[in-house]
Amino acid sequence: MEKTWATSAALATSAAPAAPAASGRGGTVSGADLHLDLSGPGGVRAALVRALRDAVRSGRLAPGTRLPSSRSLAGDLGMARNTVADAYGELVAEGWLTARQGSGTRVAQAPAVRPTAPARSGSAARSGSPARSASAGGPVRPPARPLHDLRTGTADISSFPRTAWAAAARRALTAAPNEAFGYGDVRGRVELRTALAEYLARARGVRTDPERIVVCAGFMQGLALLGGVLRRRGTRAVAVESYGFWEHHDVFTRAGLRQAPIPVDGRGADVTGLDERRDVGAVLLTPAHQFPTGVPLHPDRRTAVAEWAGRTGGLIVEDDYDGEFRYDGRQVGALQGLAPDRVVYCGTTSKSLTPALRLSWMVLPEDVAAEVVRAKSTGEWRTGTLEQLTLAEFITSGAYDRHVRSMRLRYRRRRDRLVAALAEHAPHIRVTGIAAGLHVVLELPPGTEQSTLQAAHWQGLALEGLSRYRHSAAPALPPGGPDGVIVAYGTPADHTFPGVLEALLRSLPPAG
Amino acid sequence: MEKTWATSAALATSAAPAAPAASGRGGTVSGADLHLDLSGPGGVRAALVRALRDAVRSGRLAPGTRLPSSRSLAGDLGMARNTVADAYGELVAEGWLTARQGSGTRVAQAPAVRPTAPARSGSAARSGSPARSASAGGPVRPPARPLHDLRTGTADISSFPRTAWAAAARRALTAAPNEAFGYGDVRGRVELRTALAEYLARARGVRTDPERIVVCAGFMQGLALLGGVLRRRGTRAVAVESYGFWEHHDVFTRAGLRQAPIPVDGRGADVTGLDERRDVGAVLLTPAHQFPTGVPLHPDRRTAVAEWAGRTGGLIVEDDYDGEFRYDGRQVGALQGLAPDRVVYCGTTSKSLTPALRLSWMVLPEDVAAEVVRAKSTGEWRTGTLEQLTLAEFITSGAYDRHVRSMRLRYRRRRDRLVAALAEHAPHIRVTGIAAGLHVVLELPPGTEQSTLQAAHWQGLALEGLSRYRHSAAPALPPGGPDGVIVAYGTPADHTFPGVLEALLRSLPPAG
Predict the structure, then answer these.
(1) A460 touching B, CB under 8 A?
(2) Is A356 on the interface with B (CB under 8 A)?
(3) Cys-Cys crosslink for A186: which of A300, B111, B147, B231, Cβ 3.0 to 4.6 Å?
(4) Angle at CA A397, nearest 5°, toward B387 and A212?
């Protein structure tokens, strides 16, 4: 949920140790009673860095909290603006904060991500405080953790094909040559790259051979390697969709690249402005199902971006995160098929199987492949190979296709139920992005996004607003952008879906 | 094997495209016929970077090749020394070269590491050229790839417990809660951290709890995270053993830290000089079995380094890479037990099971743990969790202990046979480092290291010299260091060991 930390009255400086003022508030930080301890060794900037870091570490500044602009905080604290900007920059580099170009610095997501289910009994080693503190009377409170999770990020993890995966693992381990248990090829196991080349050609229209595929431990690891390669090639900036996942954009920032947001509309990302940005050497796109708006990239736009890349020598980074899930029968191939020499195609098992696997792949133009392999050759980027063998076996045995087909059917049924329920009970809400993927967007009347999220929260529903993914430096869009909530209907377990739908309908603003 | 690229006559500049002069030479680069193409866009420095990168990429400069000093190359090319130094620096940053402080820049190891066995039939997707070119008459040549590998880096990968591991994977997958298939805790699965805390206390004397353990995808990934944390804490330099594995040291360089080599002698690393180095905030040690000399860190030295850390607030990074393999019954606990608040203990499955797993762990002081977790929270550092569950099950079921015991017995038998064979057939060769680990050092008469390596090469034996691991900026050692070869007797498969011993004995210099 979006949290904005108002600047005025948000901060008080103090030489005393910070009091845990905001504890016990269910994660909402008002800021008014937050103290920054600016005492201690070093200059003003070091003190500010320390104080902010402590506030984040202690939880007083909750993940997602938006910080005041450097100008505004500098005014409040009587510091030079650069001092605050530098402190922010350092904390971004350290990973405590995330920056979106211009304004919009916020506290990074917490290290421990989304504990959506209680720990397995017998495995709980977190000694000390009990898991939940007893409710001590008082007013009725929303559930401490949501009953249902409709946030994007994972598919239905309860559907992981445990038995089939274990069987594939056993077969792969039995068949593996001894050398598979050594360090192996930095690009990944040839068995997996071969299986992927065949699968991606068949399922996604990708044109490649195993030599140009590099297996990584997740999409973001691939992006990080690619960001370093781009930077060393002299690229200064990467164009990103003005609605998108900032954690992906921040990978480029950590690689020393600027972010250049480009508009997104009902036909997807619009690259026509890029010709004026000579510093942009690459563009990151989600062509199959724009994240988060859900629209597929229009054919004219596909041609336009391929032409831009051909004309300028730029690279297109295609994030095909849920390309396997399209429901209207008109399978749209990967953009990579249009321009295999200019597109870096990125895929992952995170949505089709589970993010717990940490397996992803990049299909690269030949020259880029060589540089990515080189970058990946330092030991800290090695990817485990046993699960690569398992995935290769899982694909070649047909189990992967079966699983994707089964999940596609299941997700499609959920989508149909969601769309039908909305049509019946909330016909004033427009649903977009329904042709593919694992989420849709519900367009809301202007000004109702935050109240809808609040209502969902009280219904025990974890939901995200569209504005959460709006790039703060997005050009050519109405201020604040459109209102909407993202419904990741792929996330909940199947048996919970009826309850999810009811809670969602209760959260939406009434007609008129 | 060590390759030195002589400076004089080593380079000729040319405006013509480089000819693949050194191809077909079995990887030995003489340099005399190597051309650097310095034409093309950009300045002299850019041209040099491009030419060297191309030479490495094309294989004309083989992995491990030592480059001339920047001063010497600058003289040969008629450039300013800084131009060459900058070009080297850039290529180190890109991963094409590795730098050891001062002199000693060399070509990085090739991306594809050690294909020690032929590819599995049916899985070979490398189309194009046949795997081996037909031998076309001419003089007798050494084998194109070694018959036996005695280089350090992996244990006996043919002994990976495939059946037991597959069974543990099945049990772990069956028992896992649904949330295990989500993104999960950045520190790693609590099941594994709990199992490790118990195991490390019992087997290695480590004092910890699961909260202070962070699971990583390999030792070097942990080092990279730690390097970033140290740098942000203000540490400028890390002390490293003057004999050690430069790839580990280079991780710190990439994190922006200097390397400060400290002497190694018969009692291990000597930290007494560190008090004069106020820029050193941490020291990387291999206390159980110094790599590569094989000596355990003497108790007095253990105390001394713990005192240094306590006195200065420095951190000790303990690389316990083969701590499980000690043969004389006098199990020596981890250094961490002496100073749990000052030691970062690092362990891995790479030697005990297989490097293909990419699973490692760091046991951290509480304050460092929080910062490492924060650094690991950006998505590119996530570690897969399914294999963590398998390893947890493997440990708690007792299978890990059984495997380590069985391998310890097997390695001990090999060591005994090696030591006995040397005593009988080469009594003039002294063997050191025999009490633990997976390798020993054979001390050689001065000036015989290179010829021994060459003889081993002709015997089909891949072997490494001690000088390969000598830090180029090592102080207080005789120039060139002692002569010796490292015999990683843990690496070959069991059934090949008699042949390995015979070939090794034939490679050693005669007495007198």
Answers:
(1) no
(2) yes
(3) B111
(4) 75
Nearest to B205 by CA among B324, B51, B369: B324
CA distance A368 to A350: 24
The architecture CATH gives domain A149-158+402-507: Alpha-Beta Complex (3.90)
Residues with Cβ within 8 Å of B82's Cβ and at least 6 positions away in sequence, in order, are none
CATH of A4-111, one of 1.25.40.20, 1.10.10.10, 3.40.47.10, 2.40.240.10: 1.10.10.10
Q: What is the identity of the amino acid at B473? A: A
C-alpha to C-alpha distance for B28 and A12, rounded to whole angstroms? 67
CB B10 within 8 A of CB B76: yes
- The continuous run of DSSP H or E covering A399 comes out as helix A399-425
The two structure tokens encoding residue A494: 């199947």
Which of A319, A382, A379, A362 is closest to A226 using CA atoms?
A362
What is the second-level CATH architecture of the domain A162-397?
Answer: 3-Layer(aba) Sandwich (3.40)
Contact check, Cβ <8 Å, B356/A385: yes
Can you tell me whether residue B238 is helix, strand or coil?
strand
- Name the helix (H) or strand (E) containing A487: strand A484-487
- Cβ separation B378–A220 shorter than 8 A: yes
How far, in Å, CA of A416 to CA of A238, rounded?
37
Q: Which residue has the tokens 């001339």?
A: B68
Please answer yes or no on whether A173 and B185 come within 8 Å at the CB atom: no
How far is B447 from chain A, CA to nearest CA, in Å? 32
Rounded-to-integer distance, Cα B332 and Cα B299, Å: 10
Compute chain B's Rg from CA coordinates: 24
User: How far is it, in rounded angstroms, from Cα B477 to Cα B64?
Assistant: 23
pLDDT tens across A185-223, in order? Answer: 999 999 999 999 999 999 999 999 999 999 999 999 999
What lies within 8 Å, CB to CB, of A309 at 6+ separation is: A283, A315, A316, A339, A342, A343
- For chain A, give every domain's residue range: 4-111, 149-158+402-507, 162-397
Q: Phi and psi for B306 in degrees, rounded to 5?
A: -65, -40
CA A140 remoteness from chain centre: 33
Contacts of A23 (CB under 8 A, 6+ apart): A59, A60
Tell whether ipTM is more than 0.85.
Answer: no
Residue B154: its chain A contacts at CB < 8 A? 181-183
CB distance A72 to A83 below 8 Å: no
Task: Give dist(CA B218, CA B36) in Å, integer.
Answer: 37
In three-state form (DSSP H/G/I as H, E/B as E, the rest C), the secondary structure along A261-281 is EECEECCEECCHHHHHCCCEE
pLDDT tens track for A286-320: 999 999 999 999 999 999 999 999 999 999 999 99
Helices B366-375 & B219-232, crossing angle to 10 degrees?
Answer: 100
Place of tokens 């020598």: A313
The pLDDT value recorded for residue B18 is 33
What lies within 8 Å, CB to CB, of A92 at 6+ separation is A98, A99, A105, A250, A253
DSSP B442: E
Q: CB-based contact (8 Å) between A63 and chain B?
A: no
Structure tokens at A432: 């977009």
Residue B219: closest CA among chain A residues belongs to which residue? A380
Return d(Cα B437, Cα B286) in angstroms, integer. 11
* Coil, helix or strand at residue A360: strand
